[in-house]
Design brief:
Helix content: 55-70%
Largest sheet: none
Number of strands: 0
Shape: rod-shaped
Number of helices: 3
Strand content: under 5%
Radius of gyration: 30 Å
Length: about 80
């Protein structure tokens, strides 16, 4: 049975029931993370993920470079003598 809630002469009780159900749907979707962001932002999310991947790779490379053993000047003097 259709209630035609969009009509101006819809029963106020029907509208209130519908609004309550919409509120429940909204709260449950937020809990489940279904409608976290509008769909239009998904492409931006993919670009951000790609940028983040590059940044993480750069940080790992810098960390590995910092951990690599260094030959000090003192060691090179003894090796050349």
């Amino acid at each position: 049975m259709q209630r035609k809630l969009e009509e101006p002469d819809a029963a106020p009780g029907d509208r209130q029931a519908f609004e309550g159900q919409v509120l429940v749907l909204k709260e449950l979707s937020q809990i489940l993370g279904l409608f976290d962001r509008p769909q239009a932002n998904r492409e931006q999310d993919a670009e951000n993920a790609k940028l983040l991947d590059g940044l993480m790779q750069l940080l790992m490379d810098l960390r590995n470079e910092a951990r690599r053993p260094r030959i000090s000047r003192r060691q090179t003097r003894f090796a050349s003598a």
